[in-house]
Specification:
Layout: H1 2-24, H2 29-40, H3 47-51, H4 58-69, H5 76-93, H6 96-116, H7 121-133, H8 148-151, H9 154-176, H10 182-186, H11 188-200
Family: Belongs to the HflD family.
Subcellular location: Cytoplasm; Cell membrane
Keywords: Cell membrane, Cytoplasm, Membrane
């Protein structure tokens, strides 16, 4: 459950970045770097290694606690996006052609990352293109609400797509850790406890 919770927190952090960028064109730089870096760690030895450190997913873990505890901390639009991302990941997993194209695109973007850095506009733009050419071709799409002025800017759209790709990466990881929709119905308290343990370490 602990690893599954961290993967879900990674998805939440990616989606919170999507919200922030779509609404204001701004995002926490450390959170952005951590989320985008997870896209490139395809063969990591552990769930925590995918993110570099659980500490780098602090925002996502805090969001997860707030979402599952309810009350004033719950964000309905974020929860809706999260469920859509999980549905998108299931569809993506059934498309070998898109998975191959996704891997090729990430490898190419990884070469650019080595040269420029993970949050450089060139790398972000490439990740955005990868998302548009693979995940966006599925029948289900993640609807992003924000400031229309921001969402008309190419750089903002690229960042949004790159962060959505990071969220999908975490959704893949969650499924690999045997995550299921039952977690949201029956295991919320266990995930809150796991998230708090991660936050305490």
């Amino acid at each position: 459950m602990k690893d599954r919770t961290l993967a879900l927190a990674g998805m939440m952090q990616g989606l919170r970045l999507v919200q922030s960028i779509a609404r204001s064109g701004q995002a926490d730089e450390a959170d952005l770097a951590a989320s985008l870096a997870s896209v490139f760690r395809i063969d990591a030895d552990s769930v925590e290694a995918v993110y570099g450190s659980a500490h780098l997913m602090k925002t996502g873990l805090e969001i997860l606690v707030g979402q599952f505890q309810g009350g004033g901390q719950r964000d309905g639009s974020l929860g809706k996006m999260a469920m859509t991302v999980l549905s998108v990941e299931r569809q993506l997993n059934a498309r070998a052609d898109l998975l191959d194209a996704l891997q090729e695109g990430i490898i190419e973007a990884g070469r650019q990352r080595e040269h420029f850095g993970v949050t450089h506009p060139t790398v972000v733009a490439r990740l955005g293109e990868v998302y548009a050419n693979t995940v966006s071709r599925l029948s289900t799409r993640v609807l992003v609400q924000g400031d229309p002025t921001q969402l008309q800017q190419e750089a903002v759209v690229a960042q949004v797509r790159a962060c959505l790709l990071a969220a999908v990466r975490s959704a893949v990881l969650w499924r690999q850790m045997r995550g299921s929709y039952w977690d949201f119905l029956l295991r919320r308290r266990a995930m809150v406890d796991a998230a708090r343990r991660w936050l305490a370490t």
